[in-house]
Amino acid sequence: MELIVDATPTATVIRVMATRIDAPTALQFKEDMRAITAGFDGRIILDLANVEFIDSSGLGAVVASMKQLRPDQSLELAALQPIVEKVFRLTRMDTIFAIHASADHACAAGNT
């Protein structure tokens, strides 16, 4: 799965380039996230703007990515498409993750 990393002054932004995070892609997503996040500190913003669909396996992979972080790291989400946002809301994961309208908004929130 293609993930693009952009280190900003307030956070590390990881952009998911795939349109789906589901059973066939969840394991690779989780492994890629583990490898990427090991090299960064602080806030990590997962930009899901391109993701049009997420299933329970994908949701589990996002949660697992959060749980594997060190105590000095945090995972926030940005740019959820309506279907993806609905999955997070229905599973109440919107109470676990900080969710931002866009990666830019998330990065700006780190400046306050």
Molecular structure report:
With 112 residues, this protein is α/β, with parallel strands linked by helices. It has a single domain, classed as STAS domain (Transcription Regulator spoIIAA, 2-Layer Sandwich). Helices cover 38% and strands 25% of the residues. It is built from 4 helices and 7 strands, in the order βββαββαβαβα. It has helices at 23-37, 56-67, 82-90, 103-109; strands at residues 3-7, 12-16, 20-21, 42-47, 53-54, 73-78, 99-100. The strands form 2 sheets. It has a 5-stranded mixed β-sheet. β6 (73-78), α3 (82-90) and β7 form a beta-alpha-beta unit. The relative contact order is 0.20. The mean pLDDT is 95.
Task: Pick out its properties.
112 residues, 4 helices, globular
**Separate helix tally:** 4
Spatially, the strands of the biggest sheet line up as 1-2-4-6-7
Mean pLDDT: 95
Structural class: alpha/beta
Q: Rough shape?
A: globular
CATH class equals Alpha Beta
In what range is the share of β-strand residues?
25-35%
- CATH-level-4 superfamily name: STAS domain
Into how many domains do the coordinates divide? Answer: 1
How far apart the termini lie comes to 33 Å
The secondary-structure element order is EEEHEEHEHEH
CATH architecture: 2-Layer Sandwich
How much helicity do the residues have? 25-40%
Number of strands: 7
State Rg.
13 Å
**Runs with pLDDT <50, length 5+?**
none
